[in-house]
Amino acid sequence: MDYYLIFASAGDVTPVDILIEEFVLCDDFTAAWIDSAAWRSETGAWAAAPGLSREIRSDPGMRGRARAVGRNAASEAYTLLGGGDLPEEPDLRGHFDDRVPLPAAAPLDLGTSSGTRRYRILFAGDLGDEGLMGAREALRLEPTDNPRVVGTATGSVGGHGFAWELRRIGAGIAWCVDVTVRLGTGPATALGALLHHHRQAIREQGLIPVTIERFA
To answer: Taking the CA atoms of the chain, what radius of gyration do you get in angstroms?
Structure first.
């Protein structure tokens, strides 16, 4: 589950709302929906928040008022704002009742060999110098000569081979992590775990995950 603190204005230190989200994944680990709910200090109540989920991805001004945090920071903010103890995640999911659908399409045939898949984890926002440094470290990236590709890396987990790169999409518009996997004989859960790790690693640098797509 992902947590965000929402502030009345960019630069404020005390949040006014708390947004919680969870990506709903298909069997191949692509994203189908985003479940969301928000606790608003004005009402002191939880409610489904599909509009807010869309807004932090589409509106730079709104995105500037949102900060990705972990559960501990969200719990501290919830208590500070008078909510008491933050409910456990199974209880929070009870407020998910209006999903944000994500575009879905069959993977393209890009001529990749059998057993090879290509994924893109898309993010909204921009990375500053500190965020770029954190992303390079978290994903163990090696520099490239391509000005739009921050770095690349490879690894193997669970019998599968992986290669990934962090790529800039436009100036200050979006970023993505492109992942190529050569499936081995091990369980596919290793693929899901790697995609989850990369999504969270970049989210922790301040970007908002938008979707997980599969191209091949």
So the answer is: 18
Q: What is the DSSP string of 141-181?
A: PBP-S-TTEEEEEEEEETTEEEEEEEEEETTTTEEEEEEEE
Structure-token pair, residue 61: 């001004």
Beta strands in the chain (DSSP E): 2-6, 17-25, 31-40, 45-48, 66-69, 100-101, 116-124, 149-157, 160-169, 174-182, 208-214
Is pLDDT of 113 > 70?
no
pLDDT in tens, 47-83: 999 999 999 999 999 999 999 999 999 999 999 999 9
Dihedral sign computed on CA atoms, order 142, 144, 147, 153: negative
Q: Are the C-beta atoms of 177 and 170 separated by less than 8 Å?
A: no
Question: How far is residue 15's CA from residue 40's CA, in Å, rounded to a whole number?
Answer: 10
Region class of 44: left (phi > 0), else alpha (psi between -120 and 50), else beta: left
Q: 3-class DSSP state for residue 52?
A: helix
Which pLDDT value is given to residue 160? 94
Q: Are 174 and 122 in contact (CB under 8 A)?
A: yes
Integer Cα distance of 1 and 196 in angstroms: 11
- Give the Cα separation of 135 and 176 in Å (integer): 11
β-pairing, 17-25 with 160-169?
A: unpaired
User: What pTM was computed for the model?
Assistant: 0.92
